[in-house]
Amino acid sequence: MRRKSVIISISVILIVLFGLIVYRGFRYTRGVPVSVEKKEKPVLEVPFIDIDIDLAKDISLEVWNRIPPKEIELNYQVTILPWGKSLISPIIVKAFHNKKFIFFYIRYKDETENRTISTNKFSDAVAIMFPLEDKVQPATLMMGFLGEVNIWQWKASQDKEYWLKTSAENKVYTDFYYPFEEKELFPVSKDVHRSAVNDLVAIRVGTITPKENQNVHGRGFWKDGYWNVIFKRSFEPPDEHSAKFVIGEKRLCAFAVWEGEKGDRGGRKSISDWVEVIIK
Amino acid sequence: MKKVKTFLLLNFFFLVLPNLCFAEERLIEIKAKKFSYTPNIIKVKKGDLVRVRLISEDVHHGFFLDGYNIETSAYPGVDGSVSFVANKTGRFTFRCSVTCGDFHPYMVGYLIVEPNIRFYTFIFLVIFLGLGSILLLFFKREKVNDKDKLFGLIDLNWRFELTKFKIIRTLFKSRWFPLLLLIFNLFVFTVILIAGFIGGYQAGNYNFGIMIVWILWWVLLMLILVPVFSRAWCMMCPFPIFSDWFQRKRLFAVNQDKPSGLNLKWPKKLKNMWLMNIVFLFTTFFSGFFTVRPFATFVLLGFIILLAFIIGMIFEKRSFCLYICPISGFQGLYSQFAMSEIRVKNPEICKKHTPKTCFVGNENGYGCPWLLTPFDFKKNTYCGMCTECFKTCPYDNMAFNLRPPGVDLLVDTKREPKGLDEAWKAFIMLGIAIVFFLAYQGPWGFIKDMARATTLDGYLRFIIFHTIFNLLVIPAVFFVFVYLSKLFSGNKEIPLKKVFINFAYTLVPIGLGVWITFSLGIILPNGSYILHILSDPFAWGWNLFGTANFPWTPVFTGIMGYLQGITLIIFYLFSLAYGFRLSKQVYPELKQAKYGWIPIFSFLTLITLIFLWLFIG
After folding, report:
1. Predicted local confidence at residue B482, as pLDDT
2. Do B200 and A29 touch (CB under 8 A)?
3. What is the pLDDT of residues B103-161, one digit of tens each?
4. Would you kindly state where each structural domain of chain B is located, as residue ranges?
5. Assessment of whether the complete model's pTM goes beyond 0.90
6. What is the CATH class of A40-279?
7. What is the ipTM of this complex?
8. Which fold has domain B23-115?
9. Residue B334 pairs with which residues in a beta bridge?
10. Is A80 close to B261, i.e. CB distance below 8 A?
11. In Å, how far are B57, B115, B117, B362 from B49, measured between CA atoms?
12. Which A residues 84-113 touch B at CB under 8 Å?
């Protein structure tokens, strides 16, 4: 009788223990839960300053010194191949408007100035993405899950062609401007840039499309290992596919940086999470 | 000569010319979504230029085509593409090459390059060999004094004793054997349990537990252990080791005291395979979980170990292994086909020897833990090969023999009236092979969704279909052929139940062949994952053997169809060979045996053709 009781007790204890292990396993099969503080979105204030910047002259660095900087952290883009192999972070962002135009200023450290594109040589670039729909996903990863967005992408190579009026390509194209023919037999069509900034629209990954009208201007200067890039657009949206800014309202935006020297292009880039933009 | 010319001309017109004339460019858009492709079966003609555009509708998916060894992959919004000339005919599996979720290894589709000559050739071979065997049966005169030889080549009484070699005999008599194997496996299964517990929902193909149990162990069991070494796994299985230690109160030495625990006798009504049949079938309801989710494997193995221990505390010796263990039943069934056995050398010595130390034990070893009487072993079915009888026999009268495969099928002890349990085990194993193939190696996504319980409704349908198909449909179809057999034989006296049970054993060779064929479809495409998990068993970033970054590499998948076809034909022939011998055991007259054999032969041929269609058609 005693033996029977002992065996029943052992069996019950073992079953309970196993049950507890299984319970714990079921509870934590996706990992031990940890509480993560919800990170507040960085806020970028856009004050009203009654000044205009003529990008053709300079980018008026002294104006920017009057506006407090906002430091934005960037991360590797690891959602879609090719993954970024270098990381540029943080970047300094400032912005203001004068009711006619809105300006964004981005400054970040980059040891090399990459304005020339060639085989295995890529241009530096910076972009700002504005969601156009009210319902926005909580992360900027995988634009594929987003609705419509307006992207402003400044490219150093395009800046070189637009502002400095020199070719951004190395002279290695055998049939590019063929010098010996009076008439080009196989002409290569090449866009003449209307700005150093591409005004783009997209609805998800793989759908980036240049807009019919290019509404955003910009210019970049590289000095002492830093890029200083300015974006300029009319305060009022020029068309329905453009970011809309309203005084007193909050908007979202995100930033991306390509470091040409490290082979960044396409999806290989550093990206930020959403940043709140408050128009004052 | 004229006939040959006509034959060649016809071949040219009907086989060669169409392929030369009508080769075309085919653009095929394949949509990939967890865990199937649309379209899932693609047919092209030999010579076609095939351009595949892969479109992912959810996550990153891959496309690897067996035989052609070409690959592409696609993200949502970023399509993949690959082009090739379909210059090899046959059915080729395309499979996801990017780990996309739990059912990733089961995400497949078929490309059929017509004409599927490989399939037609095997169909022809099955029919040709099958009908040939029937013709031989009816037209070849049997000589009265002929030795019974398998395929006319191997004497069924041939045995080769391996234990006559001193080193093997010493090993079998040592108490370290199979204890060291048990301890090694105990270590491996401890790692498996830990990996299963901490693995959670980790992708199964990157989990040590899943890969070792369901890829390596299962395939070893079906490919080598059972067909060659009978129930050798039971010899080294660590599951009952705790109850052995508990009962014996010793880790190593022999204890002749009364065993601890209640030591009750197993209920008489349950002394058969029925409980094992039910437990095994019930276990397969969850195959869509434990073959892909590490934690489900942990729960399954943990539960088996716990149950083995508790049963060991209550009932005598290895009652768990004999009457409950889900793995034990099919091993017992298929071990009848094994190429080795443990038997008595000289029965006369055993007759005179009292007490029967192999049954009651002595200072050298325990009495048969499997509650058998080794001195009159006839079949492998219930012998767990623990080698205690080698240790306890003072006359060294036990032998470990090599033998022709399948001879146990002709041993007619315990077939009737209680043999229905073993017959149903054969049906269940055959049925599960079909359901598993459809769910895990077939291209039909809706079945996978049912098996992985995407919806409760679908999962319940899967369970109901699975149960009815295995317990009722297959036995019912078999019964029809058995009934026809009795009708054809003209024998009215013999009980239908006896015919049913005896012929059920013809399903053992073909059943084992089907499982070997199925196992090839597991190990060849997925075996390379094992290199990864050996180096990094807990997914902690280790690289113990330098193989942690070994990429997924399908092996011999291009010729897998041939291997599968050949395997099925070989085991089909074994089924035929033993089937007619069983027919002669069932029916008292040779003429009755011959005519009674025809329906059973037809059934075996039919299921072989069905499996050929499933695997390579």
Report:
1. 97
2. yes
3. 999 999 999 999 999 999 999 999 999 999 999 988 887 666 667 888 888 899 999 99
4. 23-115, 120-146+413-616, 161-410
5. no
6. mainly beta
7. 0.82
8. Immunoglobulin-like (2.60.40)
9. none
10. no
11. 25, 15, 19, 74
12. none
